[in-house]
């Protein structure tokens, strides 16, 4: 028996996606053309999308070619328009024939079109230029509708108002590293103390903000960040944040609760998120793990 070998995890995952047969049952060609997913599918330039998609994923060399560009990109559009998780997106597509039409299927299937993990690998390979191009294409689909005449107050014709929907991709979102999150927590505590002391004209207590900041700057200035330096920086940040949390609570606890009125509801939410983030980071550092349940990726 021949045993196939794989070069990496990506190839294994894409092969698993391909090896799962899709059971086709009912034709999708008779769907209503007035449905939003059908309209979107009919107006998008799939040939151009496929060309740009394959160019970035180098499908002649990698396993991403096991799934058509329309199927994967259509899944990404559904995910971000509906604001669903990877797993919920696959489930929604599995239950909705109109979404399956967008993905290029000719017949309805009750099986998952691919595994949710495929989204993760595709997002790593596609760049911002591809998502920006896709956003513009989605905007251009609005122009496919019959044009209406528009006039201004003076009676002059104009082109109307163009509305661009950019919900199809997560463009230019900062990748949340552990050190970035701890730095955000340190800045938040320092800012809230500044706000409280300025409002009530009291002297600000000495914090560990400078020490935490210096450790963070030392890390991000390094071109090559080794594991030892990252762990050392995180340890300093965690200890400084722990001390500042205790100082913050003690400082405010000695004063009447009515003084806390200077904080907004957003401040309280950020503070709660920062404290939960600190507990998660401390637990992961002590247990030497990289994952935890309901992980905080932003305190704002």
Write up what this structure looks like.
Residues 32-124 form the Transposase InsH N-terminal domain. This is Transposase InsH N-terminal domain-containing protein. With 300 residues, this protein is mainly alpha-helical. It is 56% helix and 3% strand. It is built from 12 helices and 4 strands; from the N terminus they run αβαααααβααββαααα. The protein has helices at residues 9-19, 36-43, 46-57, 69-82, 86-95, 97-102, 117-125, 128-140, 178-200, 209-220, 227-253, 265-287; strands at 26-27, 107-108, 150-151, 157-158. A two-stranded antiparallel sheet has the order 1-2. A two-stranded antiparallel ribbon has the order 3-4. Strand 3 and strand 4 (157-158) form a beta hairpin. Helix 9 (178-200) runs parallel beside helix 11. The longest helix is centred in the last third of the chain and has 27 residues, at 227-253. The model is unreliable at 12-25, 61-65 and 143-147 (pLDDT under 50).
């Amino acid at each position: 028996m021949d045993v196939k070998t794989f070069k990496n995890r990506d190839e294994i995952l894409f092969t698993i996606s391909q090896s799962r047969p899709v059971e086709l049952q009912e034709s999708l060609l008779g769907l209503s053309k007035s449905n939003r997913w059908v309209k979107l599918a009919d107006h998008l330039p799939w040939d151009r999308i496929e060309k740009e998609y394959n160019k970035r994923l180098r499908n002649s060399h990698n396993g991403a070619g096991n799934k058509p560009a329309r199927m994967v990109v259509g899944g990404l559009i559904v995910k971000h328009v509906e604001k669903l998780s990877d797993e919920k997106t696959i489930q929604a597509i599995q239950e909705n024939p109109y979404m399956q039409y967008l993905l290029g299927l000719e017949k309805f299937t009750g099986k998952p079109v691919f595994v949710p993990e495929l989204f993760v690998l595709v997002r790593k390979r596609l760049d911002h230029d591809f998502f920006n191009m896709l956003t513009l294409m989605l905007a251009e689909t609005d122009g496919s509708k019959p044009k209406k005449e528009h006039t201004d107050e003076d009676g002059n014709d104009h082109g109307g108002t163009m509305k661009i929907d950019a919900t199809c991709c997560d463009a230019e979102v900062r990748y949340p590293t552990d050190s970035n999150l701890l730095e955000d927590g340190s800045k938040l505590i320092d800012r809230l103390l500044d706000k409280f002391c300025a409002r009530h004209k009291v002297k600000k207590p000495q914090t560990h903000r400078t020490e935490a900041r210096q450790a963070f700057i030392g890390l991000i200035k390094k071109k090559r960040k080794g594991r030892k330096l990252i762990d050392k920086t995180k340890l300093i940040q965690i200890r400084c944040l722990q001390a500042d949390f205790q100082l913050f609570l003690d400082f405010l606890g000695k004063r009447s609760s009515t003084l806390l009125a200077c904080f907004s509801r957003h401040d309280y939410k950020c503070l709660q998120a920062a404290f939960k983030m600190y507990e998660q980071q401390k637990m992961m550092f002590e247990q030497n793990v990289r994952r935890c349940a309901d992980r905080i990726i932003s305190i704002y």
